[in-house]
């Protein structure tokens, strides 16, 4: 069985079918990109994986265990963490405290949580900003803090939702480097991202969706050259 697998997952919101029978899997440490135009169902898939929204149908497996009916906090404790498209730091807390809050998932000791948080801030190039209020950070640093917060729960699978949105080209390159570094540390990653540079720079496999349905999935070059993918992104006359 794969390390992580979604099997024919479906999500209906009333009459709207946001996700229809999507299946994909990934192995430990693998990075996959989830792409699709606005409103195609990418964030909903993340919300289903975390059980922020219950599935309408389908199954989700992590490390051989079915997880789709577990509560969100249990899924996180098992090792799946995520970031949000709209970053959500605890604004009145320092950068360090934001990351420590997550580290308490696996320890009751303040000194251990602090030590782990400092390690993660070093890893995410945020160590020099540890005492700043989170609300004082630039967008790029907030995105980094969002990743650091997710890492603080010690995930084996990380869901990254538009980590590079709003970043300039240099910051985008830095985000790609952070993602690669996380992957090298053995953590599997699913990336939702509109910037193809980020997807192509990091992903070993791409799943392309439109209107909640799979267009195709597989090797990145093949997927982005698929006529239906080009059509979904650029319109009929480019296909
Ligand atoms: N809580 C909800 N209630 C009703 N409809 C929803 C809800 N969440 C998402 N949708 C709808 O489901 C569809 C998929 O939305 P989703 O946010 O998953 O797309 P997305 O691919 O992440 O888009 P974007 O790239 O713009 O972030 C959209 O039509 C959206 O309006």
TrEMBL record:
<dbReference type="InterPro" id="IPR003593">
    <property type="entry name" value="AAA+_ATPase"/>
</dbReference>
<protein>
    <submittedName>
        <fullName>ABC transporter ATP-binding protein</fullName>
    </submittedName>
</protein>
<dbReference type="GO" id="GO:0042941">
    <property type="term" value="P:D-alanine transmembrane transport"/>
</dbReference>
<feature type="domain" description="ABC transporter">
    <location>
        <begin position="4"/>
        <end position="236"/>
    </location>
</feature>
<dbReference type="InterPro" id="IPR027417">
    <property type="entry name" value="P-loop_NTPase"/>
</dbReference>
<dbReference type="Pfam" id="PF00005">
    <property type="entry name" value="ABC_tran"/>
</dbReference>
<dbReference type="GO" id="GO:0015192">
    <property type="term" value="F:L-phenylalanine transmembrane transporter activity"/>
</dbReference>
<dbReference type="GO" id="GO:1903805">
    <property type="term" value="P:L-valine import across plasma membrane"/>
</dbReference>
<dbReference type="Pfam" id="PF12399">
    <property type="entry name" value="BCA_ABC_TP_C"/>
</dbReference>
<dbReference type="GO" id="GO:0016887">
    <property type="term" value="F:ATP hydrolysis activity"/>
</dbReference>
<dbReference type="InterPro" id="IPR003439">
    <property type="entry name" value="ABC_transporter-like_ATP-bd"/>
</dbReference>
<keyword id="KW-0813">Transport</keyword>
<dbReference type="GO" id="GO:1903806">
    <property type="term" value="P:L-isoleucine import across plasma membrane"/>
</dbReference>
<dbReference type="GO" id="GO:0005524">
    <property type="term" value="F:ATP binding"/>
</dbReference>
<dbReference type="GO" id="GO:0005886">
    <property type="term" value="C:plasma membrane"/>
</dbReference>
<dbReference type="GO" id="GO:0015188">
    <property type="term" value="F:L-isoleucine transmembrane transporter activity"/>
</dbReference>
<dbReference type="GO" id="GO:0005304">
    <property type="term" value="F:L-valine transmembrane transporter activity"/>
</dbReference>
<keyword id="KW-0067">ATP-binding</keyword>
<dbReference type="GO" id="GO:0015808">
    <property type="term" value="P:L-alanine transport"/>
</dbReference>
<keyword id="KW-0547">Nucleotide-binding</keyword>
<dbReference type="InterPro" id="IPR032823">
    <property type="entry name" value="BCA_ABC_TP_C"/>
</dbReference>
<dbReference type="InterPro" id="IPR051120">
    <property type="entry name" value="ABC_AA/LPS_Transport"/>
</dbReference>
């Amino acid at each position: 069985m794969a390390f992580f697998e979604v099997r024919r997952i479906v999500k209906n919101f009333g009459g709207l079918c946001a996700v229809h029978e999507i299946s994909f899997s990934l192995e430990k440490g693998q990075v996959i990109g989830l792409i699709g135009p606005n409103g195609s169902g990418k964030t909903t898939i993340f919300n289903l994986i975390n059980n922020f929204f219950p599935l309408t149908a389908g199954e989700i497996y992590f490390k051989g265990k079915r997880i789709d009916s577990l509560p969100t906090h249990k899924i996180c404790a098992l090792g799946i963490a995520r970031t949000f498209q709209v970053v959500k730091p605890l604004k009145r807390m320092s950068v360090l405290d934001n990351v420590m809050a997550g580290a308490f998932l696996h320890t009751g000791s303040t000194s251990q949580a602090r030590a782990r948080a400092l390690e993660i801030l070093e890893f995410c190039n945020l160590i020099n900003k540890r005492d700043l209020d989170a609300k004082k950070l630039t967008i790029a640093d907030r995105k980094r803090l969002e990743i650091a917060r997710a890492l603080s729960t010690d995930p084996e699978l990380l869901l990254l939702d538009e980590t590079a949105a709003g970043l300039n080209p240099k910051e985008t390159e830095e985000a790609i480097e952070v993602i690669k570094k996380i992957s090298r540390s053995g953590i599997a990653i699913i990336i939702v991202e509109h910037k193809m540079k980020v997807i192509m720079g990091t992903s070993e496999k791409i799943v392309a969706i439109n209107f909640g349905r799979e267009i195709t999935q597989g090797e990145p070059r093949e997927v982005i050259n698929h006529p239906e993918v080009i059509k979904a992104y650029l319109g009929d006359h480019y296909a």
